[in-house]
Amino acid sequence: MLIGEIKLNQEPRIALYAETEIPISRAGLAALKDQLMHLLDMRFRPTDPEPLTDSKLAVAEVADLLCCRCLTVLQMVTQGKLHPVSDQHGELYFDPAEVANARLPLKSRSL
After folding, report:
1. What is the mean pLDDT of each run of 10 residues along the chain (111 residues)?
2. Domain residues of the chain, as ranges?
3. Fewer beta carbons under 10 A from the terminal one: N or C of the chain?
């Protein structure tokens, strides 16, 4: 899950993701973001609080939203542009907020 981003000097922003085997409560996630902001001397910008719904998108749904093919979505995962989680069956699911922020160059889009 995307927890925020950090900017050091004039370098590009770095997105910070957290992956845990134990679910973190909304209060725990907020506390983690506060601690990171304190430790990183205000260079850390936390993401907005997670929505109350536990919605997730499958590969085909992401492809529809981004107007591309499923193969392009999987390439975005390989390139580190998207960060899915998998369920016990190996199916990939994506955070809708991350997908909304994903950008595809025009030449990658296919109709």
Report:
1. 72 75 72 74 63 72 88 90 83 85 57 46
2. 2-46, 57-108
3. C
